[in-house]
Amino acid sequence: MKNTIITAVFLVLALAGQASAQCYADYKAKQDNPLRLQYGIIELPQAACASPQAARTYAEPVIARSGWTLLQIESIFDETEFQRRSANAGAIHLRQ
Question: Each residue of 9-20: pLDDT tens digit?
Answer without folding.
Answer: 332 333 333 445
